[in-house]
Prior knowledge:
CATH architecture of the largest domain: Orthogonal Bundle
Oligomer: single chain
CATH class of the largest domain: Mainly Alpha
Largest sheet: 5 strands, mixed
Distance between the termini: 96 Å
Number of helices: 8
Radius of gyration: 22 Å
Strand order of the largest sheet: 2-1-5-3-4
Amino acid sequence: MAETMTVQKTVRFIITRQDSPDSKPYTETFDIPYRPNMNVISALMEIQRNPVNAEGKQTTPVVWESNCLEEVCGACSMVINGKPRQACTALVDKLEQPIRLEPMRTFPVVRDLVINRERMFNALKRVKAWIPIDGTYDLGPGPRMAESKRQWAYELSRCMTCGVCLEACPNVNERSSFIGPAPISQVRLFNAHPTGEMNKEERLEALMEDGGIEGCGNSQNCVRVCPKGIPLTTSIAAVNRDVTKHMFKKWLNA
């Protein structure tokens, strides 16, 4: 009686790799043993444990970033089958195969799927995307936000600086200094805060400079890809209105 052999189901990954920031990118294929409920991160972990490519050759483990694995930190952003998204929530069963992984190209590649997000963090510094601590906390609780404002402000606060909206935006590239959707949305958030409002004009001034809000081409790609569903285009429109009012106010007072 002939024995029946069970064939292990595998998942094929085609990964764009890059050994250093200055080296040329190349692709390498891996066949990973399939398991139910796999996500892209678990597949990359499998490659890390056993870095053998589809040709059976030993290779270096693929380098990537991750942290929370719950779509909160934004660290595992990459381009999966042509779409920028989070690897932790990309389920293998819902992806067309072979699965193609690439680094986000809006940012400089450090190695393989790891990118340098300095451009985005510098943009957040530029618009002062935080609440300055100036001693007002000694005065006790500040004014309460209206519930209607608090609700939409909470939606904006869910931004995890993943960079996906900048990757999808055609106006954020190496030839442009456009600040990008996420920092503009954060201006709206912090200008709405009772304490953050003290620096409102400073933030609007930053958006009037080169690479500011005028760089938005209204492609609306950002709002389509945002993993948190943040109303980025609504924020951009609202901030654009505030910038215009501020500009006319300066002109009238000149």
